Amino acid sequence: MAPLPLPDPDAPPLVALRDVARVYPHGSREVAALDGVSLEIREGDKLAVMGPSGSGKTTLLAILGFLDRPTRGAYAFEGRRVDSLDDDQLSRLRNRTVGFVFQAFHLIPQLTVVENVETPLLYGPAPPDEWRPRALEALSRVGLAARADHRPSELSGGEAQRAAIARALVTGPRLLLADEPTGNLDSATGEEIASLLDELHSRGSTIVVVTHNEALARRSRRLVRLRDGRVEGEERPA
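^ that's the sequence the OP posted. Answer follows.
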């Protein structure tokens, strides 16, 4: 396989965090889940985030995905400041630009696989006649088209995670956020999902993976380590 093109260093970053902190009240005091994080992610990058429990990984992912907002600092997405947007504006931006993959899949058991994949489109601008073709195309991208009419209970763990990834891709997001995407899978199935993320990245997806799995993290171009809400260091695997 030819080496992937590197993100353009002269292009503005897709994501830019500057001195971002997130502070939560805890009884009579405050706790900083993030404490002065600065980070850039460029189009076509693949970034892994590691750190012990309580290091701020989940909070960072929530802020990147517009599920939370910084207490202080600046967040620019596509060159536009977004940390001061209201909830409705953040919700629209999230639906248009971000896809989420979770450890627990979060598939709706009463719906078929293709109906699960369609669900993000219900809240976006795509007309209803586009929902099914787009969902089927997303399932094809993850090798799950043949299971479109099955229920989540009929899927293996790896198939369920593929369906969840298809759901994350169906809106054509600029940024794919994966929170422990192999955490509920055995090693062989986890390898399949890791390979799928590699493939999506090779096709141009910008991906951030939060993981405790060192081997999965080292498949990324960049590996950021957090501790106590701060960036402890950054490595560049192979």
